[in-house]
Specification:
By secondary structure, the protein is of the alpha/beta class. It is 40% helix and 16% strand. It has a single domain, classed as Rossmann fold (3-Layer(aba) Sandwich). The chain binds nicotinamide-adenine-dinucleotide. The site of nicotinamide-adenine-dinucleotide has 30 residues, from α1, α4, β5 and β7.
Length: 366
């Protein structure tokens, strides 16, 4: 049995499936394949079952509310569902929160990944040879593990990008905890031969993104005429990838990637944070013009407010995604311009989702 056979209805256990990328991955998988999905999610503040309403009644979708640090419950899930692939997205993911309170990041991102690896190994060891060979553990990670790249403001020459061989140099508690989890996954592959894959992706944006992150925060604050906070001078560069492009890459790696390999995923869309915010303002100016006759403000970018920079803030990330293109034929479909327009429109059309998630009404009965 090979996991890349299109005829098989694979069972994929996805951790963190109620989050931003996990929910996009589940919607995409249910809508575009015949695979089954077991969503294992603790439902922290960032997990929201409302993001899965469109597929939750599909007979190929199952939900288990479980903390990945709970070994016994994880064992029960493996025994019950017998997955062919594990795709591990569950994580604490917000850098600012990791700076203020790192404990949850150490627990979920490091101890949780360790617990999941061990339960996966126990389950995998007892599979038949065929199933054992076909099994995959795909760990979803970030480009932030590679640290800071030179910025065009203070670097002359050809600017480097992260490749799969770039040494790790994480700067924040978040990226250090993700780097630790990547190392654990590689060790479980090398020591126990667990068939693992790792992907390191750049900044995602798109629908269903929790409104603490730059893109949704900017859109929602702008609609409420609140300040649009921008760190420092706003010249930090990130490589932006539309979430649908990311989840297509993830499914490809999980089913066709080579065991033991790492693949970088990026959008070839390097933008300064201030450019991202101004771009959103321009789209809002066009779609929902801002006219406030009681003040001089007439454009959303009047709301931009520069705030003290984040401690340890990396200045530039950029991904060289040539390996995944060469080996698996993946490349992004969206440019930043098309993706950000779709995203702004989605937030305009889905303000109830935003309202509910912000009010904490994020745990629907399943
Ligand atoms: N968002 C990005 O731009 C980005 C970029 C590259 C990589 N990543 C990685 O992709 C993954 C998903 O990111 P995201 O933006 O969707 O995150 P998110 O914060 O939106 O979602 C995380 C999900 O994990 C769940 N979770 C948290 N702790 C858990 C635990 N202990 N047990 C079970 N579930 C738990 C949450 O309830 C939530 O549903 C993360 O591993 C992140 O590091 C994210």
């Amino acid at each position: 049995m090979k996991p890349n056979s299109q005829n098989l209805s694979l069972k994929i256990l996805i951790t963190g499936g109620a989050g931003f990328i996990g929910s996009a991955l589940i919607r995409h998988t249910i809508n575009n394949t015949n695979y089954s999905v077991i969503n294992v999610d603790k439902l922290t503040y960032a997990g929201n079952l409302q993001s899965l309403i469109s597929i939750r009644d599909n007979p190929r979708y199952f939900f288990e509310q479980v903390d990945i640090c709970d070994a016994l419950k994880l064992k029960g899930i493996f025994d019950k569902h017998k997955p062919d692939i594990v795709m591990h997205l569950a994580a604490e993911s917000h850098v600012d929160r990791s700076i203020n309170e790192s404990g949850a990041f150490i627990n979920t991102n490091i101890v949780g990944t360790y617990t999941l690896l061990e339960q996966t190994r126990n389950y995998w060891t007892n599979l038949s040879t065929d199933k054992k060979d076909a099994f995959r553990f795909h760990h979803i990670s970030t480009d932030e593990v590679y640290g800071d790249l030179p910025h065009p403001n203070n670097f002359k020459g050809i600017l480097p990008s992260f490749t799969e061989k770039t040494p790790y140099a994480p700067s924040s508690p978040y990226s250090a905890s993700k780097a630790s989890s990547d190392h654990l996954v590689r060790a479980w592959n090398r020591t126990y031969k667990l068939p693992t894959l790792i992907t390191n992706c750049s900044n995602n944006y798109g629908p269903y993104h929790f409104p603490e992150k730059l893109v949704p925060l900017t859109i929602l604050n702008a609609l409420e005429r609140k300040p649009l906070p921008v760190y420092g001078k706003g010249n930090q560069i990130r490589d932006w990838l539309y979430v649908e492009d990311h989840v297509r890459a993830l499914l490809l790696v999980a089913t066709k990637g080579k065991v033991g390999e790492t693949y970088n995923i990026g959008g070839y869309n390097e933008k300064q944070n201030i450019e991202v915010v101004k771009n959103i303002c321009l789209i809002l100016d066009e779609l929902v013009p801002y006219k406030d006759f009681s003040s001089n403000f007439s454009n959303y970018d009047n709301l931009i407010t520069f705030v003290n920079d984040r401690p340890g803030h990396d200045m530039r990330y950029a991904i060289d995604a040539s390996k995944i293109k060469k080996d698996l034929g993946w490349e992004p479909k969206e440019t930043f311009e098309t993706g950000i327009r779709k995203t702004v429109k989605w937030y305009l059309d889905n303000q109830m989702w935003c309202k509910n998630i912000l009010e904490g009404e994020n745990q629907l009965e399943h």
